Amino acid sequence: MIMKHRHVAGLAIGLGLALFAGDAFAQKTKVTIYTALENDQLAPFKSSIEKAVPDAEVVWVRDSTGVITARFLAEKDNPRADMVMGLAASSLLMFEKGGLLETYEPKGAAGLKPAFRDGQAPYTWTGMDAYLGVVCFNTAEAAKDKATAPVSWKDLLQPGLKGKIVMPHPASSGTGYLMVAGWLQSMGEEAGWKFMDGLHENIAAYLHSGSAPACRPRAASAP
Questions:
Q1: What is the pLDDT of residues 38-72, one digit of tens each?
Q2: Bridge-partner residues for 55, per DSSP?
């Protein structure tokens, strides 16, 4: 999701304008972007932004969704971010409700599906990604314990996976939060919480990064 803070309104849009005279034209305007995107996603965005707006120099501040959200809210009276990019829709809705977003509707946004665009005026955010929840299974580790590959979320409750599952922490990771929200929506409140109580018994660690569980050497993980 992409947005701009009200207190820095127009900075990103006006970067192509001449801000200084004389020798200052050679200086670039630093644009601080808060993001929860993965590190390997950042370079193409930086390159594209700086190519489109030559006077801009992108400076990333990257962390997990929960950390970025908390930081943005803590700085609401003294904003440090010029833009926020690649954050969960739940965070954007929170920012929008608090009046922290500047009105901005990019060209072509009207053609997006409703789930990818702000549904109320004034228009303040635009979606950029959709995610699927999956189970990543480490076949090498599983073979040692003769663990059966899960084919559904409930298969993660099998006793053979006790202490072998890692997942993102829903309090700090947007991925983890979306997993919890997805389980509650798909299973229902009662069944969803019952599932998570059982899953907790098999969890080895809750990690702060949404991608970290897939890289951790455990038998299974739900990133």
A1: 899 999 999 999 999 999 999 999 998 888 999 99
A2: none
Q: Label residue 151 exposed, middle or buried (CB < 10 Å: 0-12, 13-18, 19+).
A: exposed
pTM for the model:
0.66
**Three-state DSSP state, 64:** coil
Report whether 136 contacts 167 (CB < 8 A).
Answer: no
> Contact 166/206 with Cβ under 8 angstroms?
yes
Q: Which residues face 168 on adjacent strands?
A: 207
The CATH number of 136-221 is 3.40.190.10
**Domains 2-116 and 136-221 belong to one CATH topology:** yes
β-strands 220-221, 136-137: how paired?
A: antiparallel
The structure tokens listed for 40 are 């390997």
Token output for 58 = 């992108």
For the stretch 107-143, pLDDT in tens is 999 999 998 999 989 999 999 988 777 888 888 888 8
**C-alpha of 185 from chain center:** 20
